[in-house]
Design brief:
This protein has helices at 3-17, 34-40, 68-75, 132-142, 160-165, 199-210, 223-235, 252-267, 294-305, 320-332, 349-359, 380-392, 405-417, 432-441, 450-459, and strands at 28-30, 43-55, 90-92, 102-105, 109-115, 124-131, 145-152. By secondary structure, it is an alpha/beta fold. It has a six-stranded mixed β-barrel. β4 (102-105) and β5 (109-115) form a beta hairpin. The radius of gyration is 29 Å and the shape is elongated. α6 crosses α8 (252-267). The longest helix has 16 residues, at 252-267. The protein folds into four domains: 23-165, RlpA-like domain (Barwin-like endoglucanases, Beta Barrel), CATH 2.40.40; 190-267, Muramoyl-pentapeptide Carboxypeptidase, domain 1; 274-366, Orthogonal Bundle (Muramoyl-pentapeptide Carboxypeptidase, domain 1), CATH 1.10.101; 380-459, no CATH class.
């Protein structure tokens, strides 16, 4: 036992005998580092480094690490190392500080140690500042600060003046500077614009080409490539039109969209989506981010039927797209009040019950419109259409995600081959009637087709009474 600890025990013993244990820790000792704090066992004041973290949400606009998954890996989810839920006042501290330690941080307020972090060592504390875009902005605006911290280890008597400060925080702004993202690297990639050259340009070109865009992969950011970038940005709603700020520039948000599109294009396999009337929609277990398996696929299919899951493919992985869809459903059905709710994005019992009720028609949602595919359309659905047209013998071109002249002619030839009654405007357009007829021609059970289900819901058609030539 060190000398300082022996003296401390002696002081505690004397005070206890004197019946004044309520003033065991009436004073503060200045500590030079975290070891001094732990060794002294007293209330201690030290110079500390304070950083900030937050809880990422799949629905936020930007991610510092480039993706929702990477952000979660860096900042964690909604549960602390102590098992509590994150909230304002949560402090991550080195393991030498027990959970329950109170820390008064100059310039912020009073927090409690409830969390840990691999990079949280020595005199460093990490304060939690919120969720989603707002939390990200606060954490970024806080940055890294060196300030005074007063530490009250468990068992210390926390002054009433300090207790009164709990729950009252001096929060940084929840709005980022206008040039914040321009100063950041685009998730390990350079910002690209007209005239750029090199491997990053080549990677962007390869991604767009794999998505069906008319791109030459040569590492040269020319005017033709700029036009394809703008079209991609408009499709992903990154910009409104070609006159918007950032149009044609591959920056953080565009890189994020490119990488996400590339990931979903290469790692997922399209599957047939079941309809409300033909499948058991009940999900027996709670699901959250990172879950895998058939129950996740069922969840995605259910949410797709209701119009909340707009990912082009169904997978068995609960990722950011699924979490965002769950949040949209929860907000629409008033299962949660805001995306800041602790249950946001989690398929818990209440959300499962509400989802099943809506699917069984106890509260029928608005019908989901069928999206026509026509010349200029892009996406996985176009490639799936081309594969079907190959089987009926009207398409002989390459399989891509672009609806060009060859695909248009193949649709038109199919409509003519099966003597469909279509208008001039519908010629070569893959609309609802053509979609149903194509599935019939392939011998598919149209009762399992989401196209057919949506059609009969909106136009009151009855299965089995479809007339020849529809």
């Amino acid at each position: 036992m060190t000398k300082s600890k022996s003296v401390l025990l002696w002081i505690r013993l004397v005070l206890g005998i004197a019946g004044i244990s309520s003033v065991l820790y009436p004073f503060s000792v200045k500590a030079s580092n975290h070891t001094d704090v732990i060794e002294s066992g007293l209330i201690s004041t030290l110079d500390c480094v304070v950083t900030a973290y937050y809880e990422p949400l799949a629905t936020q606009a930007n991610f510092l690490q480039g993706s929702f998954a990477a952000e979660v890996a860096m900042d964690g989810d909604d549960t602390t190392a102590s098992g509590t839920k994150v909230s304002l006042g949560t402090v991550a501290a080195p393991p030498e500080y027990p959970f329950g330690t109170i820390v008064e941080i100059t310039g912020f307020g009073v927090g409690e140690v409830r969390d840990r972090g691999g990079a949280i060592k020595n005199n460093r504390f990490d304060i939690w500042l919120g969720r989603g875009d707002e939390g990200l902005a606060r954490a970024a605006n806080w940055g890294k600060r060196t300030t005074k911290c007063t530490v009250y280890l468990p068992g210390s008597e926390v002054p009433s003046a300090v207790k009164e400060k709990m729950g009252k925080y001096n929060l940084p702004s929840a709005v980022l500077p206008a040039d914040f993202w321009l100063k950041k690297q685009s998730f390990g990639h350079k910002n690209l614009s007209l005239g750029s050259e090199g491997d990053d340009v080549r990677e962007a070109q390869e991604i767009l080409k794999s998505l069906g865009y008319q791109v030459v992969v040569d590492g040269d950011f020319n005017e033709d490539f700029e036009k394809e970038v703008i079209e991609f940005q408009i499709q992903k709603k990154i910009i409104a039109d070609s006159t918007s700020g950032g149009a044609g520039t591959v920056g953080p948000r565009t890189w994020q969209a490119l990488l996400a599109a590339s990931s979903s294009n290469t790692k997922s396999n399209p599957v047939l989506i079941p309809t409300r009337s033909t499948v058991d929609h009940k999900i027996a277990i709670d699901l959250g981010y990172g879950a895998e398996g058939s129950e996740v696929s069922k969840l995605q299919g259910n949410l797709r039927l209701l119009g909340y899951f707009d990912n082009p493919t169904i997978t068995d992985y609960f990722g950011p797209a699924t979490q965002a869809a769950v949040i949209r459903f929860q907000l629409a059905e008033k299962v949660i009040d805001s995306d800041q709710d602790d249950r946001a994005g989690i398929l818990d019992k209440k959300t499962r019950e509400r989802l099943l009720a809506v699917l069984l028609g106890k509260n029928e949602p608005a019908p989901i419109p069928f999206t026509n595919l026509k010349k200029g359309s892009r996406g996985v659905e176009v490639k799936m259409l081309q594969e079907k047209l190959v089987k009926v013998g009207t398409y002989k071109g390459p399989l891509s995600e672009y609806f060009g002249e060859q695909t248009e002619k193949a649709v038109s030839d199919f409509q003519k081959k099966y003597t469909m009654n279509i208008s001039i405007e519908e010629k070569g357009v893959f609309e609802q009637k053509t979609a149903i007829r194509l599935d019939q021609a392939l011998g598919l059970d149209i009762s399992l087709s989401p196209v057919f289900t949506r059609y009969i819901e909106q136009f009151s058609l009855i299965k089995g009474t479809l007339k020849k030539g529809i």
